[in-house]
Amino acid sequence: MLFDSTPSLPAEDPDLGSPRSCDACALARACDVNSLDLACRRELQRLMQALGPFARGAYLFREGDPFHAITAVHSGTVKTFVVDAAGREHVLGFFQAGEVIGLNAIHAARYPCNAMALDPVTLCSAPFPAVAALATRAGDLQVQLFRLLSHGIRKAARMAGDYRADERLAAFLLDLWQHRAATGCGSPCLDLVMSRADIANYLRLATETVSRVMQRFQHDGLLRVNRRRIELLDLARLEALAGATSLT
Amino acid sequence: MLFDSTPSLPAEDPDLGSPRSCDACALARACDVNSLDLACRRELQRLMQALGPFARGAYLFREGDPFHAITAVHSGTVKTFVVDAAGREHVLGFFQAGEVIGLNAIHAARYPCNAMALDPVTLCSAPFPAVAALATRAGDLQVQLFRLLSHGIRKAARMAGDYRADERLAAFLLDLWQHRAATGCGSPCLDLVMSRADIANYLRLATETVSRVMQRFQHDGLLRVNRRRIELLDLARLEALAGATSLT
DNA sequence: CGGATTGTTGAGATGCCTCAAGTAACGTGG
DNA sequence: CCACGTTACTTGAGGCATCTCAACAATCCG
Question: Rounded distance, CA B2 to CA B96, Å?
Answer without folding.
Answer: 18
